[in-house]
Amino acid sequence: MKQENNKEHKFGMVIDLDKCTGCGSCMVSCMSENNVPFKEDESNKKDSITWMRVYKLTNGKSFPDTETAYLPRPCMHCAGKGGHGHSPCVSVCPATATEYGHDTGIVSQIYTRCFGCRYCMGACPYHARYFNWWDPKWPEGMENYLSPNVSPRMRGVVEKCSFCYHRYQAARDKAYHEGRNDIEENEFQTACTTACPAGAIVFGDLNNPAHKVHQIVKPDPHPDKWNRHVVGKSRNPKVFRLLERLGTNPKIYYLSEREWIRRKGDNYLDGEWDKIKNHHGSSSHG
Amino acid sequence: MDSALIPEGAKRCSFPKFAIGIVIVGAVLLWGVFAMGLIWWKGLNQTNMNDYYGFALWIWADLAVIAVGGGAFFTGLLRYIFNIDELKNIINFAVIIGFICYSSALLILAIDIGQPLRGWFIFWHANVHSMLTEVAFCLSAYFAVLTIEFIPNILENRQANKVPFFRHLAHNMHGIMAVFAATGAFLSFFHQGSLGGVAGVLFGRPFAYREGLLIWPWTFFLFTWSAAAFGPCFTLLITKITETITGKKLVKDNVVNLLAKISGWMITIYIIAKIIDTIYWATVTAPSLGFNISHFYTNNGFYGYWILITEILVCGLVPGIILIMKSTRENPTLRLIAFILGVIGICLNRWVMVLQVMAVPVMSFDTWALYFPSWQEIATTILPVAYGIILISVTYRYLPVFPQEAELNAVEPAAETE
Q: Stretch A47-70: mean pLDDT, rounded?
């Protein structure tokens, strides 16, 4: 038996923004799991590395109508226009240092091949890519706590969320040794998913109807009839993706009952949202 | 002291005066080299770039010098392929300026990457889908072509030319220069275009994104055309500056006016295309992605509508019209103003297509990002300017760069100074 998966996966995530409390556990667990370096002074957030970053959203209304929400933002693992794997970042990297895994849907980053041109960062509208402006430095003794499964990155290369790919590799290895062709849903879960105390993050295979993420998202198997570049659109009217209209086709979905949060997911011209909001999700496909 | 190296019949300033000038500019160059050393030693943390501004001053400088260096390929195309004979009187200088611009661009790229020792990965692990890959290949190849075009001029140095091999080599290279001019034009079309494509393909960045023809966004063609249009403005501007500093007329007015006229028509055609592109982008492309044009301009004082008006009208349409109208073109002051506006305009265009792309928020809850370069970035950006001044000074002093210099300055040799 070859150590390969016979099925094409499309790993993705749905994050329930109504459950997220903004506690930051996902950020902490991600940094710890993936040996993400940090600075002594983290006050400048524009050069801090946060594979998972929690944004604070507000509805823009004054008291007592103010509402806030928190939006965790990992790498979107975009499938690119039409879902062909030409993600915004993958298609521009001149040295093929980032690739789209057609068997997993995961956008990888090859640290040893990246030469630090940062074109991918410019291409990513989600700011999900980070440059190592400094060499990683760990406080004395902390080296002992680094994960042995993830290589630390050196100065001068770009890094980003990998969907904890090393966990996928470990799960695949385990399945192989046990004579199985594929992994179970619970065998591959990202660090942020397992750390979220509110259970706001659901991770799994969007191609597998048995997986919870598929059941929540209900991804449309057909391209969007209004925008042929958009594929995998959710048929759940409460589910949306960030900047879906650009055709980046992220595999991170967000779930919220609140309309103002769903509206924050994309940009709309005046009056457009009121026409479009009812076309989102299942209602847009009859 | 160095009179044996100075072209026959040419008057140059004394060597000490020349040396003092070189030392002063050399000090600026060394400042840049020091900053470059710091960056290579300590890394890009020496800059004020950040994860919002991954592309910043250097990429702008790269795009700008390559655009203004476009005078070399376009003048070469006109001279050798379209056989416009008068341009033989400025082609040497155009090639030298192009050489300076392209070598500067390569140097800046070498500073700009996080892992300079891995720079060759762009060739070894080339991703054919990336515009930057196309830039790297065509840029390197064209720099080789420029070097080949520069060599005959170097070999025409008074001492080098005494060596029969060098003399014959220079002569024979001149004979086949049309081949290199054609190659240069071909390569320039692609690397100028792919530099435009770098921004135009960013479908995640609606400010930069453009539709286009097959795999090439409209910015591909706009960048190529604009480099051909504004490049000669820069060549003529530097010629004028050189004439002012040396106190000599180096190129006849008919040559200047001819190139200025061609540049004027190219600029005007470009600006019409640019206006159409801007209107289509503002009314069709961006709105289809959920953006009003006001989203890109009005939320921020620095990137207001003024930048669009300055680039297209003040520094595009105005120089174009000045240069196509005979009366204004032949007025030295207006002509010079047109050159200056043109160079500012093309540099502003490249600024917008790099810096503003990074500044504009895309996610609805994101914010504008502003940036000011560190002194190390500024010093390394001034470095190529100092290098260019030194190279022009040295080549002007020791090489027969301007074929019309002797004729234009023969009547009053006593007035010549540098």
A: 96
Closest CA to B401 of B156, B138, B45, B66: B156
What residues contact B166, with CB distance under 8 A and at least 6 apart? B155, B160
Q: How confident is the model at residue B222 (pLDDT cuts 50, 70, 90)?
A: very high
CB-side exposure of B221: number of CA atoms within 13 Å?
15
Asked whether the beta carbons of residue B287 and residue A243 sit closer than 8 angstroms, the reply is no
**Cβ-based contacts of A154 with chain B (< 8 Å):** 115
- Outline where chain A has alpha helix (H): 25-33, 88-92, 119-123, 165-177, 191-195, 212-217, 259-263, 272-276
The verdict on a CB contact (< 8 Å) between B114 and A266 is: no
- pLDDT exceeds 90 at position B410: no
Tokens 């009056």, residue?
A271
Which residues in A lie closer than 8 A to residue B203 (C-beta atoms)? Answer: 81, 88, 246-248
The token duo for A233 is: 């659109």
Tokens of A260: 């103002």
What is the distance between the alpha carbons of residues B346 and B26, in angstroms, rounded to a whole number?
28
C-alpha span between A237 and B84 (Å, rounded): 66
Q: B389 with B26: CB under 8 angstroms?
A: no
User: Which token pair is A23?
Assistant: 């506690």
- Can you tell me the ipTM of this complex? 0.92
pLDDT at A285 over 80: no
Which of the four pLDDT bands, split at 50, 70 and 90, describes residue B418?
Answer: very low
Distance from the Cα of A56 to chain B's closest Cα (Å) equals 8
Distance from CA of A102 to the nearest CA of B (A): 17
Which domains, and CATH codes, for chain A? 11-171+200-285 (3.30.70.20)
* Distance between CA atoms of residues B137 and B182, nearest Å: 17
What is the C-alpha separation between B213 and B30, in angstroms, rounded? 45
C-alpha separations of B78 from A65, B72, B113, B259, B326 in Å: 68, 10, 35, 9, 20
Q: Residue range A70-83: average pLDDT? A: 96
Give the pLDDT band of residue A6 (cuts 50, 70, 90): low
Residues with Cβ within 8 Å of residue A286, at least 6 apart in sequence = none
CB atoms within 10 A of CB B367: 10
The answer to whether B250 and B243 are in contact (CB under 8 A) is yes
What is the arithmetic mean of pLDDT over A254-279? Answer: 90
Using a pLDDT cut of 90, give the percent of chain B over it: 88
pLDDT for res B22: 97
